[in-house]
C-alpha cells in the first residue's frame, strides 16, 4: 500500500507551537513529496523535536494545519502509514527483543516478517536477549526495528544514529537505503551534518522554529557563500587580491592565499587575467557544516538588533 | 477490528511480563499463601464466620488488590517516564489500548491467584461452600481488582516513578486497613469502613457464607468507587496526553 498519489506526503501550513511566550515552532510551512529523503537540520532547541512531535500527533499545534497523506496525522498513524522512531521513545522491559518486535508487528495492519525486520535493523544477533539488558546502541537499533516492523509509506526518525558507533551507523544507513528503495518517503532529524550531506536528497534547515533554508545539500552549501579556494602566489599583492570579484574573505600567509568566494570561476579568472600565474590551485566546496553555521549565524545576527530593541522598549 | 486484536496482542505481552516478574509473583501469590498456611487454621469467629473463612477472604483480596494496584501503578508511571507509552502512540494501537491491556492483564493474572487461595481454603482450611458461593466471592474480589487497576492508571499517569512509592503505600494501607483486610474493623471505625470498597468486598464474602445473601448497598458502594476511579483514570490519561 505505497502512497502513489502525487500530492504531498506531509504538509505543514503555517504551523506554530507556543509554550507561553516561547515560540518553539514559529510559522513553519513545508511539503514533503513522495519518495524523498529529507534531513531536518538545526541546532539544539531549533524546534526539530517539537515539529516531529506535532507531525506524529503527539502534540497539537497552537495554530496552523498539518496534513499527512491528505488526512490528519493521527488518522495516518493509526492506519499504519507511518513508521516512527523518537529519541524519547522507550521500550517495554522484561520481554525479549524478538517478542517486542513481534508485538509491534502485530499492532500493524500490514506486518512485515519479524525475521526480515530484525535483519534490516541489524538486531538478529541479540534477538533472544531481554530488552532491558541492551547497550545504548543496541537499544537504538531495536527502536529502529519498531519503526519498520510494519509496511508503511513514510518513515520518521529523530536523530536515529545517536549512540551508534561509526560502523553501526554505516550499516544503519545501508539498511535504510533498502527501505527507501521500496519507494518510501524518509524524514530524519540529525545533528551529524555529514549524514545529512550523504544520505538526504533535500535538507531543511530550521532555527528558532523557522525554516531558514530548503534545498539539496549542494544548494544549501552554495547558499552559504560557496567555495573555498587556495593557491600559492609569490608576490601576493594584498590590495589587488582584496579587489577580486565575488570575494567573501581573504587570508594571506607568506605565499599561501586562501579565499572564500561566492563565484570561484570569476575570482580565479580575474587573478589569471591580471597576469598572475598562481600554482597549487585548489578549489573546494564549503562543508555542509560551515554552510549550516553560516546560515544559522546569519539568522541569529538578523534577530539580534530587534531582540535588543524589544528589551529597550 | 485490527484495533481490538492489537489491544489483545498487547494484553498477551503484559501477561507474559507479569508471569516473569518475581516480585509480582511473591507479593500477589506467595505472600498470601504463606500467611494463610501460617494462620488460616485458627478457630476464632470473626464477623459471624469462622476465622479461617474470614482470613481466606482477607488474604485472597490482599493479594489480588496489591497486585493490581501496587504493581500497575509503578509500572505505568515508569513506562510513561521511559517513553514506552509514547512509543505505543506511534503504533496503530487504539488510544485507549494501553490502559485497557493493563487492566485486562491484571484481571486475568489475578484469576489463578484467586483460584489458588480458594483451593487452599477448601482443602487446607476446610472451608466447604457450594460452587455458587465460591463464584460470588470470586466475582466480588475480581471487581475489586478492577477498581484498583483503574486507580493504578490514574496515579501512574499523574505521578513520577520516584514519588509514587510512598503514595501507593499510604493509599493501599488506607484501603486495606479500613477495609478490614488486615484485621476486622468494628465500632465507629466500622461505620467509616462501610464506605470503602475493600470492606464491602470482604462483606459480600462473609454475607454469602453466613446467610447466602448479597448486600445491594455493598454492591452499590463498590460500583461507585469503580465509576470514580475509572473517571479519574480517564481524566489522567487525557490530561497527560500532551506531556507524554
Main features:
heterodimer, A: 313 residues, Rossmann fold, Alpha-Beta Plaits, 13 strands, 27% strand, disordered C terminus, B: 244 residues, mainly alpha, two-stranded antiparallel ribbon
Q: Give the CATH architecture of the largest domain in chain A.
A: 3-Layer(aba) Sandwich
CATH topology of the largest domain in chain A: Rossmann fold
Largest sheet of chain B: 2 strands, antiparallel
Which strand order spans the largest sheet of chain B, edge to edge or round the barrel? 1-2
Write up what this structure looks like.
By secondary structure, chain A is α/β, with parallel strands linked by helices. Chain A has two domains: 10-221, Rossmann fold (3-Layer(aba) Sandwich); 225-285, Alpha-Beta Plaits. Chain A is 36% helix and 27% strand. A six-stranded mixed β-sheet of chain A has the order 5-6-7-3-8-9, sandwiched between helices. A four-stranded antiparallel β-sheet of chain A has the order 11-12-10-13. In chain A, helix 4 crosses helix 5 (136-147) and helix 8 crosses helix 11. The radius of gyration of chain A is 24 Å and the shape is elongated. In chain B, strands 1-2 form a two-stranded antiparallel sheet. Chain B has one domain. Chain B has ten helices and two strands. Chain B is an all-alpha fold and 244 residues long. Chain B is globular. In chain B, strand 1 (45-46) and strand 2 (49-50) form a beta hairpin. The mean pLDDT of chain B is 88.
Brief digest:
The complex is a heterodimer of chains A (313) and B (244). Chain A is α/β, with parallel strands linked by helices and 313 residues long. Chain A has helices at residues 48-55, 73-78, 97-106, 114-121, 136-147, 166-181, 193-199, 217-223, 238-242, 264-273, 288-312, and strands at 10-19, 22-32, 37-41, 63-68, 82-85, 154-158, 185-190, 202-207, 210-215, 227-232, 247-253, 256-261, 279-285.
Amino acid at each position: 500500500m505505497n502512497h502513489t498519489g502525487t500530492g504531498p506526503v506531509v504538509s505543514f501550513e503555517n504551523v506554530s507551537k507556543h509554550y507561553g511566550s516561547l515560540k518553539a515552532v514559529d510559522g513553519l510551512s513545508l511539503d514533503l513529496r513522495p519518495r524523498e529523503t529529507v534531513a531536518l537540520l538545526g541546532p539544539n532547541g531549533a524546534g526539530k523535536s517539537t515539529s516531529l512531535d506535532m507531525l506524529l500527533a503527539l502534540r497539537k499545534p497552537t495554530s496552523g494545519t498539518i496534513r499527512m497523506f491528505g488526512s490528519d496525522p493521527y488518522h495516518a498513524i493509526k492506519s499504519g502509514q507511518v513508521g516512527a522512531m523518537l529519541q524519547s521513545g522507550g521500550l517495554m522491559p522484561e520481554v525479549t527483543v524478538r517478542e517486542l518486535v513481534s508485538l509491534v508487528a502485530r499492532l500493524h495492519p500490514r506486518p512485515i516478517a519479524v525475521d526480515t525486520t530484525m535483519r534490516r535493523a541489524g538486531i538478529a544477533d541479540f534477538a533472544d536477549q531481554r530488552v532491558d539488558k541492551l547497550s545504548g546502541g543496541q537499544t537504538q537499533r531495536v527502536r529502529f526495528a519498531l519503526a519498520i516492523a510494519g509496511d508503511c509509506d513514510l518513515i520518521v526518525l529523530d536523530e536515529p544514529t545517536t549512540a551508534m558507533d561509526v560502523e553501526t551507523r554505516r550499516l544503519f544507513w545501508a539498511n535504510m537505503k533498502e527501505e527507501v528503495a521500496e519507494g518510501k518517503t524518509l524524514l530524519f532529524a540529525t545533528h551529524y551534518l555529514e549524514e545529512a550531506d550523504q544520505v538526504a536528497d533535500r535538507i531543511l534547515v530550521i532555527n528558532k522554529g523557522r525554516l531558514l533554508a530548503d534545498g539539496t545539500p549542494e544548494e544549501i552549501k552554495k547558499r552559504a557563500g560557496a567555495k573555498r579556494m587556495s593557491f600559492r602566489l609569490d608576490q601576493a599583492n594584498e590590495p589587488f587580491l582584496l579587489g577580486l570579484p565575488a570575494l567573501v574573505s581573504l587570508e594571506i600567509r607568506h605565499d599561501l592565499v586562501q579565499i572564500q568566494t561566492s563565484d570561484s570561476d570569476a575570482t580565479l579568472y580575474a587573478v589569471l587575467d591580471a597576469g598572475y600565474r598562481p600554482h597549487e590551485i585548489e578549489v573546494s566546496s564549503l562543508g555542509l557544516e560551515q554552510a549550516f553555521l553560516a546560515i544559522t549565524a546569519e539568522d541569529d545576527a538578523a534577530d539580534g538588533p530587534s531582540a535588543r530593541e524589544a528589551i529597550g522598549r | 477490528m485490527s484495533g481490538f486484536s492489537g489491544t489483545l496482542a498487547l494484553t498477551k505481552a503484559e501477561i507474559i511480563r507479569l508471569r516473569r516478574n518475581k516480585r509480582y509473583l511473591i507479593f500477589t501469590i506467595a505472600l498470601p499463601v504463606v500467611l494463610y498456611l501460617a494462620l488460616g487454621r485458627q478457630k476464632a469467629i470473626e464477623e459471624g464466620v469462622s476465622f479461617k473463612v474470614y482470613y481466606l477472604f482477607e488474604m485472597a483480596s490482599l493479594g489480588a488488590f496489591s497486585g493490581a494496584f501496587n504493581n500497575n501503578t509503578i509500572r505505568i508511571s515508569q513506562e510513561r517516564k521511559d517513553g514506552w507509552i509514547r512509543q505505543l502512540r506511534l503504533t496503530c494501537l487504539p488510544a485507549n489500548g494501553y490502559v485497557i491491556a493493563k487492566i485486562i492483564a491484571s484481571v486475568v493474572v489475578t484469576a489463578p491467584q484467586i483460584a489458588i487461595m480458594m483451593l487452599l481454603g477448601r482443602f487446607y482450611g476446610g472451608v466447604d461452600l457450594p460452587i455458587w458461593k465460591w463464584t460470588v466471592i470470586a466475582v466480588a474480589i475480581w471487581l475489586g481488582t478492577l477498581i484498583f487497576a483503574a486507580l493504578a492508571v490514574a496515579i501512574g499517569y499523574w505521578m513520577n516513578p520516584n514519588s509514587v512509592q510512598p503514595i501507593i503505600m499510604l493509599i493501599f494501607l488506607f484501603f486495606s486497613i479500613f477495609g478490614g483486610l488486615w484485621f476486622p474493623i468494628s465500632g465507629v471505625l466500622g461505620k467509616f469502613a462501610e464506605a470503602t470498597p475493600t470492606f464491602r468486598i470482604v462483606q459480600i464474602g462473609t454475607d454469602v457464607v453466613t446467610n447466602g445473601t448479597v448486600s445491594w448497598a455493598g454492591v452499590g458502594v463498590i460500583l461507585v468507587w469503580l465509576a470514580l476511579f475509572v473517571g479519574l483514570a480517564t481524566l489522567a490519561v487525557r490530561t497527560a496526553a500532551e506531556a507524554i
